[in-house]
Amino acid sequence: MEEVKIEKNGPKKKVGKSVLFGAAFLMATSAIGPGFLTQTTVFTQQLAASFGFVILISLLLDVVVQVNIWRIIVVSGLRGQEIANKVLPGLGVLLAILIVMGGLAFNIGNVAGAGLGLNAMLGLDPIKGAVISAMFAIFIFVVKEAGKAMDKVAQIAGGVMILLMVYVAFSTSPPVGEAIVRTFVPSEISIFAIVTLVGGSVGGYITFAGGHRLLDAGVKGVESLPDVTKSSVIGIVVTGIMRVALFLAVLGVVSQGLAIDSENPPASVFKLAAGEIGYRMFGVIMWAAAITSVVGAAYTSVSFIRSFHPMIEKYHNWVIITFILVSTITFAFIGQPVNVLILVGALNALILPLALGILLVGAYKKDVVGKYYKHPLWLTITGVIVVIIMGILGIMTLIERIPMLFA
């Protein structure tokens, strides 16, 4: 690999804003899926205003993870699995298998979520809605400029979701003052909620979505780092805005003493907040969240096997399309394989510490980042802390969930 040399006075390569925002929104909208909506609603019910503290801590951890991973990927000019193979031969293959397994399993849930979104929005049968949504996702990768199309869809969908979510949040008249106080002085703390939110925001394939997108757009090298850092933080901010808006919407409903339907908590919140129109809004948000997660999961999962064979690299868009088709067919004919999702969900909790740990080691290898790059010490220290915490809690989650497969 060509070594990266820092030129203090050299020309800085200009990174287009559309690329930076595209990567940020791809990461953010990949994180904002059907699970995101349900998790936020359920935890707000349980913790009320104190859930604001969970959001704050999870966002701080998210920033540490994303800034570390995006910097190392862009400086090295290598994808996650390539860095892993340089750290230890064969490690990249293991990481790729975990990412693809998790991405495929959860994409079945994303496709299902898209079908439910069209059902709430237009009254379509969920399976028909899932098939139509899959065709839309596939079309993105059929067009000539697939990368640009993906960026644009992610940005538009993200913008629509934020606007609708903020509107619903205001319509429920939440106790904002109490939420602000409890964000810094919680009356109850849930470690499980923090781990779940971090895993859902930057776990599995989501960890690499933005970084790999930047590489595919030609963004690499030390000179790009300031822009890359901004892009990673923008992605976390977008995710945070959505999380806070949904938190306030649910808090407003809960504080009024209204009962949320346990069968479909997020849909119930929107209906209680704004009636039938609110339910249709939920359909729009659910579909936008699900379709962008379908695209993000397929794109990022396939990016982990592109370097394994020249044919995969050459026809990677068609491999992505196949990935989406398999997810859709599985949902349409088999349904969501609950036991598989349970196991992969537990394995997914381990991907974040494994991936971050590997990249932190890579940040100190000259054949990965070159002779001249020095990874910031504060990022290394905070990154190691996240690896240890998420590693321990991920193993505990795995041990707890494996028996459920045989129940």
Automatic annotation (TrEMBL):
<feature type="transmembrane region" description="Helical">
    <location>
        <begin position="317"/>
        <end position="334"/>
    </location>
</feature>
<dbReference type="GO" id="GO:0034755">
    <property type="term" value="P:iron ion transmembrane transport"/>
</dbReference>
<dbReference type="InterPro" id="IPR001046">
    <property type="entry name" value="NRAMP_fam"/>
</dbReference>
<dbReference type="Pfam" id="PF01566">
    <property type="entry name" value="Nramp"/>
</dbReference>
<feature type="transmembrane region" description="Helical">
    <location>
        <begin position="340"/>
        <end position="364"/>
    </location>
</feature>
<feature type="transmembrane region" description="Helical">
    <location>
        <begin position="279"/>
        <end position="305"/>
    </location>
</feature>
<feature type="transmembrane region" description="Helical">
    <location>
        <begin position="87"/>
        <end position="108"/>
    </location>
</feature>
<feature type="transmembrane region" description="Helical">
    <location>
        <begin position="153"/>
        <end position="170"/>
    </location>
</feature>
<keyword id="KW-0812">Transmembrane</keyword>
<feature type="transmembrane region" description="Helical">
    <location>
        <begin position="232"/>
        <end position="259"/>
    </location>
</feature>
<keyword id="KW-0472">Membrane</keyword>
<feature type="transmembrane region" description="Helical">
    <location>
        <begin position="20"/>
        <end position="37"/>
    </location>
</feature>
<protein>
    <submittedName>
        <fullName>Mn2+/Fe2+ NRAMP family transporter</fullName>
    </submittedName>
</protein>
<feature type="transmembrane region" description="Helical">
    <location>
        <begin position="190"/>
        <end position="211"/>
    </location>
</feature>
<dbReference type="GO" id="GO:0005886">
    <property type="term" value="C:plasma membrane"/>
</dbReference>
<dbReference type="GO" id="GO:0005384">
    <property type="term" value="F:manganese ion transmembrane transporter activity"/>
</dbReference>
<feature type="transmembrane region" description="Helical">
    <location>
        <begin position="120"/>
        <end position="141"/>
    </location>
</feature>
<feature type="transmembrane region" description="Helical">
    <location>
        <begin position="376"/>
        <end position="399"/>
    </location>
</feature>
<dbReference type="GO" id="GO:0015086">
    <property type="term" value="F:cadmium ion transmembrane transporter activity"/>
</dbReference>
<keyword id="KW-1133">Transmembrane helix</keyword>
<feature type="transmembrane region" description="Helical">
    <location>
        <begin position="49"/>
        <end position="75"/>
    </location>
</feature>
